[in-house]
Amino acid sequence: MSYSFNFTKNSLVNIEPASTRKRYRDSGGTSSVHGLGLEVTKTGTKTFNFIQKVNGKNLQVTLGRFPEITVEQARRLAREVVHKIASGVNPNEEKRTARNYTTFEQLFEYYEASFKLDIKAGKRRESSLKGHEILYRLHIRPKLGKRTIDNFAKDEAKTFLQNILAKKGYSLHNHSLTLLKSMFNRADIENNPFATLKKIDESVFRRERTLSKEELCRLLDSLEQEEPIYQDCILLLLLTGQRKSNVLAMEWSEINKDARTWVIPVNKIKTKKPHVVPLSHEAMKVLERRSLEAEKGQQYVFPSTRSATGHIADKSGIGGFWNRITKRAGLYDPNDASKNLQVHDLRRTLATYQVTSGGSLQATSRLLGHSNIGVTASVYAHLSVDHIRTELEHTTRYMLSSPSETELNRIKAEISRLTQTEQAELFRFMQETIGLN
User: Fold this and answer.
1) GO biological process annotations for this chain's record (predicted)?
2) Can you give the CATH number for the domain in which 197 is found?
3) Which one of 34-38, 363-367, 411-415 scores highest in mean pLDDT?
4) Which residue range(s) make up the domain with 126?
5) Are residues 331 and 350 in the same domain?
6) Is 399 within a domain?
7) Which residues, 6+ apart, have CB-to-CB distance to 109 below 8 Å?
8) Is residue 234 over pLDDT 90?
9) Per-residue pLDDT, 376
10) Mean of pLDDT values over 315-340
């Protein structure tokens, strides 16, 4: 095998150990990175590294072992090294500095400083760092901040995360695990006690709460007793299907009235490109109402002089407008929080109604701003299948029915499959339409 070739997973897997240490170079592919190499020892250990001449001398930076890190990850790390060297930073010196951090508190300080460099380079978002800072301050530092990392074992890491899971739930468990892994990885500390621990499978706990048509009517009735700003905020949450943080922070500059679109910028979302949200006629009516009340030069659609952010804040706790609205609508249970309607359930409700009414998963995925359709499919695919099954049953009944079967008989059969509530509603409709007694 040539010592220079385009790195792929298969090509690296097929490299056999030799009698002496060998170094292979990534070359010849459209994504190959000059300077990226793979060293293979006599025992078969394969380690990515990057070599570049700095001031006439070769600077070699170890990136990690294959297959623990992939070819794509190694190339990304190599490019980051190039960027650091160009900025006057010696990655090896940076690693040595990181290893001097012995407590979790010091490790997070290094993580924070490193993350800020990524923000300046446009690779990460400031909002992400703020979320990590809050997570660390509230849930990790109180227990681990003063602990030293060199004597922190895997079983202690597992116990810490299990306590979070038991007290705070799977979501906080997974976010904490991700942050702690990243803290060790950024500092290039090999003995990472969190490295092999796994996230909780969220699909097991995934909430599937949506509003029935009757519950939706109750919610809308309850909204009418609120101040207009809260009415309009909840309506846009329901009509756009977007996340609460984005709707609360919606800005007039993001709205294109002519195109009837709302463009959520990259710094407010998880994806790496702006998310374009189509606005329905009803959503535009809400925005037109808000614009009539807006002061000249106002930044936010839902402004607030009492909030530090300049827009209305998340008021889902007791005493907030969401709690007030759901209590009036009978969608709040003080004895069972799992039955309470949550703001995110509005997003799920819109998506569910769209899929069950015949909308495609592709369109629903784009509306929700999911990074790929697989995320949408894992939640809503069964709804799409149910809709297809209903249509299939109509088709098969038609195919297997006798030629003498009349349209009236078909309608009777359809009515017999309705629930009692649906039949009663149909009867009222007939009374109003043709005066049926």
Assistant:
1) DNA integration; DNA recombination
2) 1.10.150.130
3) 34-38
4) 98-205
5) yes
6) no
7) 101
8) yes
9) 63
10) 83
In a domain, 285, yes or no: yes
Q: What is the pLDDT of residues 315-325, one digit of tens each?
A: 666 778 999 99
Domain identity same for 72 and 128: no
Lowest mean pLDDT among 30-44, 115-129, 231-245, 289-303: 115-129
Domain boundary among 154, 172, 205: 205
Question: Which band of pLDDT confidence, cut at 50, 70 and 90, is reported for residue 262?
Answer: very high
SS (H, E, C) the chain: CCCEECCCHHHHHCCCCCCCCEEEEECCCCCCCCCEEEEECCCCCEEEEEEEEECCEEEEEEEEEECCCCHHHHHHHHHHHHHHHHCCCCHHHHHHHHHCCCEHHHHHHHHHHHHHHHHHCCCCCHHHHHHHHHHHHHHHHHHHCCCECCCCCHHHHHHHHHHHHHHHCHHHHHHHHHHHHHHHHHCCCCCCCCCCCCCCCHHHHCCCCCCCHHHHHHHHHHHCCCCHHHHHHHHHHHHHCCCHHHHHCCEHHHEECCCCEEEECHHHCCCCCCEEEECCHHHHHHHHHHHHHCCCCCCECCECCCCCCCECCCCCCCCCHHHHHHHHCCCCCCCCHHHCCCCHHHHHHHHHHHHHCCCCHHHHHHHHCCCCHHHHHHHHHHHHHHHHHHHHHHHHHHHHCCCCCCHHHHHHHHHHCCCHHHHHHHHHHHHHHHCCC
Residue 360: band (very low, low, confident or very high) from pLDDT cuts 50, 70, 90:
confident
Select from 205, 226, 252 the last residue of a domain. 205
pLDDT value of residue 315:
61
The answer to whether residues 189 and 85 belong to one domain is no
430 inside domain: no
pLDDT classification of 95: cutoffs 50, 70, 90: low
Over 60: is that where the pLDDT of 387 sits? Answer: no
Number of domains the chain contains: 3
CB 187 within 8 A of CB 98: yes
Same domain, 250 and 349: yes
Mean pLDDT to the nearest integer, 70-96 = 86
Look at residue 377 and tell me if it is in a domain: no
Give this prediction's pTM.
Answer: 0.53
